[in-house]
Write a structure and sequence with these properties.
- α4 (97-114) packs across α10.
- β19 and β20 form a beta hairpin.
- The protein is built from 15 helices and 47 strands.
Length: 884
């Protein structure tokens, strides 16, 4: 091919934290940007520098160099320093869909602050990409993208340009990095004396794949400073290419040029997780430091489904604007989703910082929830403290779903026992009362709601107020189950505490020996600690469910690798079973047992202590389970097997803004000498398989790793225990994927808590799209109870928001990024066109359909005085409404 135009794109790939903590890399970043700014200012022929597609690097830099913000703005506005569009180059398969949206929203905010963002979705090093990636780009007005891992090596993947189509049909023009990745041209700037030979190697990697005459040449690599002699390098390359052109370009200039001319860009669709013949895909990270991935998922839930909706509703009702606090929490969370950090392939020090960061995010979210609920029910702790006379303790029920819900729920209430006096002893005398007494709840219509006591313990409670010292008390903490009245979508109901009311013995769930039984299912604990689940509706049996099994793991934080001669060890018992709750609203059994783990002998052999709590509610077919694991072994992988006996079926796994159907992975390792493909895969919230009336879904609060076997069994990863950041001697991946470094904390020793739920279902339930996710909401986002022991006269703001449309799934309720609006986002989880509607109990003023970036507004027609907004969702489409 002649008449080529080579675009030299100077960049750095900046792992914000990896084998060193972010503090160490920040020092290097300051040096890099100090030097870069001076060189860009001094040399106009050094036209542009790509700052790795993430704006967080400027945030880090300007913390140390606030005096240079004006210079940074000038360079960004001129297009000479290209930033964003991401806030952080996150792992793209582990974070939730809303986390990816917030990542891009934060990048957009920073881009506006500094004067412009890169209009290319740049993802040079993520360990695979979700199918929704092109749709996310278009939801932010971006038409171009760059990826590396997850694509390449198959017969139809030999070119560098593609049209990658998202599930909703919209696409991006994608440039695929060569096998050497973003560092393909790094040696050119360092080897001017040997440039012909170095250029020949780079040219051979790029030109045979070129689908157009425009060819980008990336100059830079991990933590590389800007090339010293970029203009001279261009001149020398131009001399080597007399028939072609060589330019110093911005990345967006390359895309504008290539999209303006003819190019063969074959279509591409679906997720990108398979590049084993092309470059390392590194899918083994999905089981690494699994406890941190679970902690990240819980932090996401607290922000997405509790803190943001309540903050938006409270502000709409005249409460405090908590968007600044939410943005700080989101920035903390998204910084922890950097691809190496959340994947777990980092030093132990970085992992420790991530754990603390996630704890801080959850603490901030909980405080936003508390304060916003106070605004919604008009509870003023200061006024309660100042008002004479006894308080009127009440339970506030809040529904985080956009559909009316009722039925069995669990709540904690407290009974005053005595004052806990803080400070030096004085004349004060502590008050005291008897504590817990039998009680019931009382509905607003006066009807009593009997309660089942699940647990009672003595604890401490602190009542905080803005204008008073905290009031600390010793209390009885009583956990109860009861049948909640109907609570509207996103709405509140307030219950009083009244005298005890009698329970009816046949309310719906009971314990018989080792079995939990309600009208829909029967669950029995087997002698090996696994479960038998009998679906009474379909008459289908599932045996050996959640049976624990362990196998050796000789891999590192990037790659699973079975040890030579290792074998699978399965739990056999003996099992100690204890009844925890007998009904009638909630029944629960506990099983305790041990499992041998760690192979081969003499190298980490140990044991695992397991506690399984299985819980069944009176009105649900969902079996809620908690697995508490005490890991006392190293160099192994612990999993739980769920046999469905559905060979030949596909497993459908939750993914960002949708789901993906996957067959079992069956390969011959000899065909993949560079890296053995993993049999495991990522899932969000659920994975399920069904044929006819037989099927089962495994639900979890957020991200998890699973395997779907050819025999039709789900295998769920609980933990991987490995001790090296990277090893170079793995038969499943010869060569180091990172720097060799001991990671003893990645052995994950000690206690772990894993929540899952099991839902029997049929193929029709799975095809519906929203049925599994409604069950997921009921399991992990149930009606929540806030006990206000110091309540006085509560006056809840009426809220009733409902999403209608079979197959539509709620994704976000949040304050608008700009202005006083409320953002509602859902997506169509089906292959069919769906007519949907938002219904509002009190009416709204305006509704505009916008993109996820809250731009490109289209006004919607309101019906029934602002109480209904109708819309059409195309297959797999994301629908965002801006409401005032």
């Amino acid at each position: 091919m002649t008449g080529l135009i080579f675009h030299l794109i100077a960049h750095t790939h900046w792992d914000r934290e990896w084998y060193l903590p972010s503090a160490a890399f920040r020092v290097r970043l300051i040096d890099l940007l100090d030097d870069l700014i001076l060189r860009l200012q001094a040399d106009p022929e050094f036209r542009s520098f790509l700052l790795d597609g993430q704006t967080v690097l400027l945030e880090d830099y300007l913390r140390a160099r606030p005096d240079r913000e004006g210079e940074v703005r000038t360079l960004v506005r001129a297009g000479r320093l290209q930033i964003g569009p991401w806030y952080v180059l996150a792992d793209e398969l582990i974070p939730s869909g809303e986390s990816l949206v917030r990542n891009l929203l934060l990048g957009l905010t920073d881009g506006e602050r500094f004067g412009g963002r890169l209009e290319v979705l740049y993802s040079p090093d993520a360990f695979g990409h979700p199918a929704i990636w092109p749709t996310l780009a278009r939801e932010f007005g971006i038409r171009y993208g760059v990826v590396w891992r997850g694509l390449g090596g198959e017969p139809d993947q030999a070119r560098d340009l593609y049209r990658w189509r998202g599930p909703d049909g919209r696409d991006v023009l994608l440039w695929h990095l060569p096998p050497a990745g973003y560092g393909v041209g790094a040696e050119l700037a360092m080897e001017l004396e040997q440039l012909p030979a170095a250029w020949a190697r780079v040219r051979d990697a790029l030109v045979p794949r070129a689908a157009a005459k425009h060819v980008p040449v990336f100059l830079g690599a991990d933590h590389h400073a800007a090339p010293v002699a970029l203009p001279r390098l261009r001149e020398m390359l131009a001399a080597l290419e007399p028939d072609n052109a060589v330019r110093v370009s911005r990345l967006d200039e390359f895309f504008q040029a290539v999209s303006a001319g003819p190019a063969a860009a074959p279509p591409l669709a679906g997720e990108l997780r398979w590049s084993y013949r092309y470059t390392w895909t590194l899918q083994g990270v999905h089981g690494t430091r699994a406890h941190l991935k679970r902690r990240n998922a819980l932090a996401e839930l607290w922000l997405e489904r509790y803190a943001e909706p309540l903050a938006a509703l409270a502000r709409r009702a005249g409460g405090v604007d908590r968007r600044p606090a939410l943005e700080l929490a989101w920035r903390d969370l998204v910084r922890g989703q950097f691809h190496d950090t959340l994947a777990g392939c980092v030093s132990d020090e970085v992992a420790q910082v991530l754990e603390r960061r996630l704890g801080a995010v959850e603490a901030a979210a909980r405080e936003v929830v508390r304060a916003s609920l106070f605004d919604l029910v008009r509870h003023d702790p200061d006024a309660s403290r100042d008002t004479p006379g006894p308080a009127r303790p009440r339970l506030v029920l809040w529904n985080p779903a956009v559909r009316t819900r009722e039925g069995v729920m669990i709540a904690d209430v407290t009974w005053f026992r005595r004052d806990v006096l803080i400070g030096p002893p004085g004349e004060r005398r502590p008050r005291s009362e008897p504590g817990h007494r039998p009680f019931s709840f009382v509905r607003p219509d006066g009807r009593a709601l009997p309660v089942q006591v699940l647990d009672r313990r003595v604890g401490h409670e602190r009542l905080d107020a803005r204008r008073h010292y905290p009031d600390a008390d010793e209390v009885d903490v009583v956990r109860v189950a009861f049948r909640a009245p109907a609570v509207p979508g996103l709405g509140c109901v307030v219950l009083d505490r009244g005298p005890a009311a009698g329970l009816v013995g046949d309310e719906g769930v009971a314990v018989k020996g080792r079995s939990l039984i309600n009208r829909d299912v029967e669950v029995t604990i087997q002698p090996n600690g696994a479960l038998v689940v009998f679906d009474k509706r379909s008459r289908e049996w599932f045996l050996d469910v959640l049976r624990l099994e362990d196998a050796s793991d000789a891999g590192d934080t990037y790659s699973y690798c079975p040890a030579a001669g290792g074998r699978v060890v399965r739990a056999e018992g003996p099992v100690t079973v204890r009844r925890l709750a007998a009904g009638p609203f909630v029944a629960a059994l506990e099983a305790r047992f041990d499992l041998r783990a760690g192979t081969p002998p003499g190298d980490g052999r140990g044991t695992i202590g397991a506690r399984l709590v299985a819980t069944l509610h009176a009105d649900s077919a969902c079996v809620r389970c908690v697995l508490e694991i005490d890991n006392r072994a190293t160099a192994h992988r612990l999993r739980a097997r769920v046999p469905l006996n559905l060979p030949g079926a596909l497993a459908v796994a939750g993914a960002p803004f949708g789901s993906v159907a996957r067959p079992p992975v069956v390969i011959d390792p000899r065909e993949f000498p560079a890296e053995t493909p993993v049999a495991t895969a990522p899932a969000h919230r659920f994975v399920a398989a069904a044929e006819g009336r037989r099927g089962l879904a495994l639900l979890a609060p957020g991200f998890f790793e699973y395997e779907w076997t050819p025999q039709g069994e789900l295998v769920f990863t609980l933990l991987r225990a490995v001790g090296e950041l990277s090893r170079g001697d793995l038969p499943t991946r010869p060569g180091h994927a990172g720097w060799p470094q001991a990671t003893p904390q990645a052995q994950c020793l000690g206690p772990h808590r894993v929540e899952v739920a099991l839902l029997p279902l049929g193929a029709a339930d799975l095809a519906r799209g929203d049925a599994v996710l409604h069950a997921w909401e009921d399991a992990f986002l149930p009606l929540r109870g806030l006990w206000l022991r110091d309540a006085r006269g509560l006056d809840p703001v009426p809220v009733d928001v409902t999403l209608e449309g079979e197959g539509l799934v709620l994704s976000a309720v949040k304050p608008a990024r700009v202005g006083a609006g409320l953002v509602l986002r859902c997506y169509n989880a089906t292959e069919r066109r769906v007519g949907g509607a938002w219904r509002f109990g009190d009416g709204i003023r305006t509704a505009h359909r916008v993109r996820a970036d809250e731009r490109e507004s289209q006004e919607q027609v309101l019906e029934q005085r602002g109480k209904i907004v109708r819309f059409v969702a195309e297959p797999h489409e994301i629908v965002t409404m801006l409401i005032t």
